[in-house]
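Final report, Chapter 2: Outcomes

The project's central promise was a pipeline that accepts a single protein chain and returns its three-dimensional structure in a standardized token representation, suitable for archiving and comparison. That pipeline is now operational. To close this chapter, we reproduce one record exactly as it appears in the project archive, with the input sequence first and the structure output second.
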Amino acid sequence: MSSGRRSAGPDLMTFAHPSEQAFASLLDSYGIRWEYEPRMFVLERDSDGNTACGFTPDFYLPDFDMYVELTTLRQRLVNRKKQKLRLLAETHPDVRVKLLNRRDMEWIGRKYGLPVA
């Protein structure tokens, strides 16, 4: 489990994708606390007990005790991510994760005037 990077303002952090920075800006504008990639969940281990498959959600919203995963990728890659989310639900049933796909992000972008690539 990594320590994660806490909200230091979206302009001061390096995000993996512009949509993550836009989402962080939206959260900040509403005063919603967030952490960026704070934890990696082990989904599968190899025979030696090492992590064989893991999942690191993009955001954790501590006030809601919920993780958010953004995806604006091609459908094939989205399906792989959904498979990981199913594994997460099986191995960590107490963890809540909301997946926001490309359509969700485009809607958020239009509604709030945010750039979503």
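Archive annotation: The chain has three helices and seven strands.
This record, like all others produced under the grant, will remain available to the consortium after the project formally closes.
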